[in-house]
Amino acid sequence: MHKTIKEIKAELALITTKEALATHPLAQDSRKGVQQAFKSRLKQIEKQEQLEKQYEMMSQYENDILNQTPEALICGIDEVGRGPLAGPVVACAVILNDDHQYLGINDSKQLSVQKRTTLSTNLRNNVKAWHIGIATPEEIDALNIYNATQLAMYRAVEGLSIKPTHFLIDAMLLDKIHAPQQSITKGDASSVSIAAASIIAKVYRDQKMKEYDQIYPGYDFAQNAGYGTKKHLEGLDHFGITPIHRKTFEPIKSKYKE
Prior knowledge:
single chain, alpha/beta, 5-stranded mixed sheet, 11 helices, 12% strand, flat, Ribonuclease HII, RNase_HII/HIII_dom, RNaseH-like_sf, endonuclease
């Protein structure tokens, strides 16, 4: 008696390699539904292999440190919100858990909202330690965005429950940290630790801007997260600046006065 397509799909779901799939007794079954099930499972296995390969590549910086110092506690640091006209700059510091494998992790901007949110929840529930650091719009105006970003990063590190031994930082160095550190250009797409920090920070900041949208309606903060979109600029024309606008940023500085 032939197995049903449903039964075959259930069997194929347990197969994890292309080799095992190709040598399966039903691989040559000529039924169209069976062949389609095999093709579908092959695509799933190839996608999984691609994700695992990407994760291995993004773990290279961490592995290089661990090969030299097996007991290292590596902290990834990233920020979000340097470019917007409104809202804080938010940094996150993360120490990943042992044997971590957050497949699909990447620069937070490259992920869908759903994927980003799911990964953020998974990370926050499972990493060894994480903490958010914030620099306010007032601090951004007083210090400039670069120094305010550093301040947010320092606050993120200071709030960790575990003291890191090594740091991987997205495109920045932190002079006040006297431990091995490496600045990585586009680190959120090159290091799993920095990518993790990027994701947690972005989900946190996006939620914060949604809350500000309720307090200051008319600027579309829930959708633009404070960036200078058409609706945001229209809101500025109609309602003026809010307490969360960065007064040293153009076009706020030149066009809008308190």
